[in-house]
Amino acid sequence: MAAGGPLILRAAPNSTAANSKVNLVLIGCGGQGRGDMKGMLSSGANLVALCDPDAAQIEKARHDAGGEAGKNAKAYEDYRKLLDDASSFDAVLIGTPDHWHAPIAKAFMKAGKHVYCEKPLTHSVAEARELGELARTCKVVTQMGNQGSASVSLRRCTEIIKAGALGQIREIYQWGIGVNASEGNAPGNDPIPQGYNWDLWCGGSALRPFVKGVYHPARWRAWFDFGNGGMADFGCHAINLPMRALDLSYPEKIVINRKDGKQLPDKAAVEFHFSARGNLAPVTLFWQGDGRPADSAIQPLVDTYKAKNSKVPDGVMIIGEKGCIHTSHWNTDGKIWLKGEEHMTDVTHHAGTKDIAESLPRSKGHHQEWLNACRGEGKTFSPFEIGAKLTEIVLAGVVGLRVGHTIQWDGEKMEAKDAPDAARIIHPEYRTKWLT
User: Fold this and answer.
1) Measured between alpha carbons, how far is 272 from 399 in angstroms, rounded to an integer?
2) pTM for the full model?
């Protein structure tokens, strides 16, 4: 994937009729998929099918959809059967565990279907590269599910930072989200529940004994074969604003401050080191893992909440020579402080930056934006071309975590130059039994 500024808005070259309802399929009926589904339904989508290897999850989705939508949606266990009925729908919402994102997205993009896929876009760096490149040639509308992209906060923070209000930025801190996940399998072997195709759920990842309450539902992210831990979960939220506002390309070095599975004291778990971009200074992003940055590093935030007698919130802090911005993990609720000011202020009501022009479009919602683009109305703000690059950045950090030491990262080549054993993580081998 070519390096370059990520603020690209992608048009919808292959759309359904304007003002019509988008016929939608949900693949992956767990909690996140159902949440996205409800957002799509409230934004005007027409639910026609539900797909999941676990029949119990499909029934939960029916309940959450409610009414005729939940009652009439056709049920599928295997996504490949959906491909056989491709004429019955326009678009696919993917809410599966991470290891299924790329295979399903690729299959339906090639079938000409619009695709919304939860973050991170893929389970591996190489898959992200492939989907980003495929999105450039497929005439479908794509959107990655980092919903903070639609917030006024993220877009206003981007405008303010790009305008130079914070000056040169050299440090970014993220705290409140851990990095741990486990290799291998959990001990135990329990009966597989009726109506649950465990082999299909494992998909391309290695088949292992089913263990109740360990992998499914919702706990798969703690296992590297299915997810990649907390940093992969939230990285495409938290790093979204920094990547856009600072034109971040691939990090050149990933520093791992962990030993024997434990984080080193007074260190961030992972450091992403980005080189200079034109006249923009080099910047380091500290993914704290355990604990939070020292008060001195985030003093304006500490002072602001001390004055309120409130706990300092988690989130992302972008620190420049003239001031700083703090947001939630999702890059919402942005607050800004410029030198000389007493406390941090809402970025959308900040007197010191009110003259900075609004250069980015405002959104009616992340789901609505995608559905509108599917109908040929406007563009998406987090298409796979952008989501893929963001995912590559985040998963480069996971590569460092899994090899267990600092790596020199060649993003263009997708190589850890000093860790040949990383190739198995960057380009994983999958079982092919369930793949198209």
Assistant:
1) 12
2) 0.95
Residues 261 and 158 placed together within one structural domain of the fold: yes
CB distance 361 to 380 below 8 Å? no
In tens, the pLDDT along 68-116 reads: 999 999 999 999 999 999 999 999 999 999 999 999 999 999 999 999 9
Contact between 341 and 325 under an 8 Å Cβ cutoff? The reply is: no
Looking at the structure, do residues 307 and 381 belong to the same domain, yes or no?
no
For residues 251, 134, 428, 226, the Cα torsion angle rounded to the nearest 10 degrees is: 90
pLDDT of residue 65: 98
* Mean pLDDT estimate for the chain: 95
Backbone phi, then psi, for 97, in 5-degree steps? -60, 160
Question: Is there a single domain that holds both residue 172 and residue 281?
Answer: yes
Determine contact, residues 115/142, Cβ cutoff 8 Å: yes
Using CA atoms, how far apart are residues 173 and 398, in angstroms rounded to an integer?
A: 17
Beta-carbon contacts of 348 under 8 Å, excluding residues fewer than 6 positions away, are 152, 153, 156, 334
Give phi and psi for 350, each to the nearest 5: -105, 115
Predicted local confidence at residue 293, as pLDDT: 97
State the alpha helices, DSSP H only, in 271-422: 299-307, 366-374, 384-403
